[in-house]
Design goal:
2 copies of one chain form a homodimer. By secondary structure, the first copy, chain A, is α/β, with parallel strands linked by helices. Chain A has helices at 5-12, 16-23, 31-44, 50-57, 75-91, 108-119, 134-142, 164-177, 193-209, 225-236, 250-262, 280-284, 296-311, and strands at 62-68, 95-101, 123-126, 147-150, 159-162, 183-187, 218-220, 244-247, 272-274, 291-293, 319-322, 325-327. In chain A, the strands form 3 sheets. In chain A, strands 2-1-3-4-5-11 form a 6-stranded parallel beta sheet, sandwiched between helices. In chain A, strands 7-6-8-9 form a 4-stranded parallel beta sheet, sandwiched between helices. The termini of chain A are far apart. The relative contact order of chain A is 0.13. In chain A, helix 8 packs across helix 9. At the A-B interface, helix 4, helix 5, strand 2, helix 6 and helix 11 of A face helix 4, helix 5, strand 2, helix 6 and helix 11 of B. Chain A binds a DNA duplex through helix 2 and helix 4.
Chain lengths: 336, 336
Amino acid sequence: MRVRLEDVARAAGVSPKTVSRVLNDEANVSDATRKRVRAAMEAMDYRPHPSARSLAGNRSFLVAMLYDNNDNPASTYLAEIQDGVLEACDAYRYSMMVRPLRMRSDDFIRRLDALISDHHPDGVVLTPPITDYAPLLKRLRERGVPYASVSPQSDGGIGVRMDEQAAARAIVEHLLGLGHRRIAHVVGIADHGASRWRLAGYREALAAAGVAEDPALVVQGAFTFGSGVTAARELFALKQRPTAVFAANDDMATGVMWAAGEYGLKVPHDLSVCGFDDTPLARQLWPALTTIRQPSRDMGRIAAQQLLAVLRGRGPGELVQVPFVLQIRGSTARVP
Amino acid sequence: MRVRLEDVARAAGVSPKTVSRVLNDEANVSDATRKRVRAAMEAMDYRPHPSARSLAGNRSFLVAMLYDNNDNPASTYLAEIQDGVLEACDAYRYSMMVRPLRMRSDDFIRRLDALISDHHPDGVVLTPPITDYAPLLKRLRERGVPYASVSPQSDGGIGVRMDEQAAARAIVEHLLGLGHRRIAHVVGIADHGASRWRLAGYREALAAAGVAEDPALVVQGAFTFGSGVTAARELFALKQRPTAVFAANDDMATGVMWAAGEYGLKVPHDLSVCGFDDTPLARQLWPALTTIRQPSRDMGRIAAQQLLAVLRGRGPGELVQVPFVLQIRGSTARVP
DNA sequence: AAGCAAATTGACAGCGCTGTCATCCCTGTC
DNA sequence: GACAGGGATGACAGCGCTGTCAATTTGCTT
């Protein structure tokens, strides 16, 4: 039969309540008692029953990770974040559940409510692009569910963020350093924070280098391979073609490379291409893609850690900044 | 305050136990009563408390999806399976948790035990390659935890499977139909079922077409991009090169295409290449990859459904076969 | 109309833990 | 040496549901 808290109490010669206190790291237990109880738990390989704990204690030890499966960013990205979140949850013996939610759909809030009512998560981790979906945040606050965000646009919350604008600026400066002056940018989905930051970084780099921005070189994309192809065709049809393209993510950059093939442009000889995200794809292309690496797994872990700090009453949590890595590979070269 | 089962009982004018029976679809409730209780539940938007249910009923309504994060197959593949599993679990109001487990590590079983002791899943879904890891299956049986598998090698269990051998045969027959006779095969990791089936399908197709197998054309890979490159270099160094390469998955096929670039071989003009899995990458390559599509999401869903059938006492569950799709794209062409 | 089995319903305890509040025991103080 | 104050500990009820078993009702037979 399973070992119960009561059994540990008997073995340690204390009351069940004291064992409970030790289990939950509560105050007002003498060091000697605490040690004795810990030893008994260890010896008996005691595992608290999560359902009993949550029923009596009115908390679930559950963290839900929410993601949008409508216009899904690369699934690899989410998988890495998920791994990181899981790692943090495991460390504190919380369990994690994942929830796809369609941001566009009008029963979004109803589904969110159902999630909360059905599973009672103690907190949630939000992933892009739903990190900044106002109705969601509002509802979470109304229902008193704490949350932490991965790459939120707005400040003020807790979670984790990379300085995407600085990263975008760095990659464009890399192109400028190779002598490029006609540098195009393929923008991502309009309301994604990522699109805004990356565009801002692009502009900042050009401005700092004293290169005037040509509006024809900034074209709209949608973070997909196909939109990259379309955008690139538009660019290649210009009288004065760009010599380099900075796409707001790797998938679109891949599309640009495809379109370059169609137009007989050799990458990087005739055209430099770079992306953002460092998906596995980026390494496998030929030539491999110059891009920005986000430490997604770390970011997931850190966001979850911040959330857990709040849930465990260990301070208010913060918005942590993590560094980016500029991955220079074969897809960028000196201007022809 | 939250609506409890007792409140529903009062509203419907029955005992709590009767509401419980309706909630759990148990027998021995008259239709009239059942209807009345259902109406009351609906009207009050009753949500059973999962912890109370599992504490009292000694089951968790939890399905764990296990995957190997050591030699991880494409994360996209797992993400799709995960989505499918989640869909099935949702339909029956089960919750799902995901668990990475390192198959090679020697504390594998300890971690499995910890998962079971800590979270008490009612059942687990196994994904390749851990679907056939004997110590795992043994331990699950010992602890009485039902499981369903995605693409298991052995028969006898429940879950879902695609006829990979037939699929491999079909893709090789496609190459034969294009006039190819020197068809190479890059094999996957030795102990994966996928490798065996795909190799068997390759041989079957050749034999059926009366083409003698050249052992030099069958080279070992490891399901990774890099191993595809290495294998292809080996093939291209042969006095008599193959005119087509069938790689056991898309990542390796991509590696083959990369290596072809190195050797100045044009795909598909000088060399036809095909893969297996239809990863997003396959569509984004240039030329796009001829490959086999597995309905991964459906497979996840079906495996979970079979497991849930068992958990809900709805029969023994079975091993379902799903159809494959041969995706013909630009990477294969008539023999030069 | 009586008698019986089967179907339906309910009373009650208890799953394993934690919140609340009472009790006990130690300090240090004057 | 008496007493306040605070830290350490425990008794007890109850979280929201289900298992067990007993009580009641129903439908059928003769």
